[in-house]
């Protein structure tokens, strides 16, 4: 479930517009499955602060995800026309896989329980997000070609321009 949760938050924070992080989402607040907790008591609605330590990996991931969004302006375009000009969806030919180019970034979301392979140009990429890890600076490199996207995860690459 945590992989799916990270994937969902990654989709939210790499989408255009203003993302909303509800109180406690960053440390896996669930409200015990209560879909409409308006009339429920504090036992359901209280923020479980100890979850920050129990799910510290998720908390840390969301902090890095927010920093990534702040650092990379392509994920904060100001108007719909800019999005239309700069975003190009790629047909992956697979159910539950969404991939697209946003300027020099390639973003792929795999919501399947199995990994998938995506064909990319054989050029150099910096890897910013892969298999439940993300950072403001590259966490790896890729030479393109056929890249693997892990189950229930996101892949974010950026073209490298060698001087």
Descriptive account of the structure:
The protein has 163 residues and is an alpha+beta fold. The chain contains 5 helices and 9 strands, in the order αααααβββββββββ. The strands form 2 sheets. Strands 1, 2, 3, 5, 6, 7 and 9 form a 7-stranded antiparallel beta sheet that branches. A hairpin with a 2-residue loop joins β2 (97-102) and β3. α1 packs parallel to α4 (56-71). The model has no long low-confidence stretch (mean pLDDT 93).
Secondary structure blueprint with pairings:
Blueprint: H1 2-14, H2 42-45, H3 51-54, H4 56-71, H5 80-86, E1 87-90, E2 97-102, E3 105-110, E4 116-120, E5 125-130, E6 133-134, E7 140-142, E8 145-149, E9 153-159
Antiparallel strand pairs: 1-2, 2-3, 3-9, 4-8, 5-6, 5-7, 5-9
Brief overview:
The chain has 5 helices and 9 strands.
| Mean residue pLDDT | 93
* Portion in helices: 25-40%
Q: For the record, give the distance between the C-alpha atoms at the N and C termini, rounded to a whole number.
A: 42 Å
The coarse overall form would be globular
Structural class assignment: alpha+beta
Residue fraction in strands: 25-35%
Largest sheet: number of strands, sense, barrel closure:
7 strands, antiparallel
């Amino acid at each position: 479930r945590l992989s799916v949760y990270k994937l969902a938050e990654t989709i939210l924070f790499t989408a255009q517009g203003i993302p909303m992080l509800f109180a406690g989402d960053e440390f896996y607040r669930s409200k015990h499955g209560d879909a409409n907790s308006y009339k429920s008591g504090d036992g359901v609605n209280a923020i479980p602060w100890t979850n920050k330590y129990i799910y510290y990996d998720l908390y840390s991931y969301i902090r890095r995800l927010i920093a990534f969004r702040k650092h990379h302006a392509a994920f904060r375009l100001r108007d719909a026309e800019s999005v239309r000009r700069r975003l190009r969806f790629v047909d992956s030919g697979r159910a539950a896989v969404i991939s697209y180019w946003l300027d020099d970034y390639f973003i792929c979301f795999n919501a399947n329980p199995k990994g998938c392979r995506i064909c990319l140009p054989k050029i150099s990429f910096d890897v910013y997000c892969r298999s439940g890890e993300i950072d403001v600076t590259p966490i790896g490199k890729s030479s393109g070609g056929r890249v693997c996207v892990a189950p229930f995860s996101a892949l974010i690459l950026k073209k490298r321009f060698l001087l």
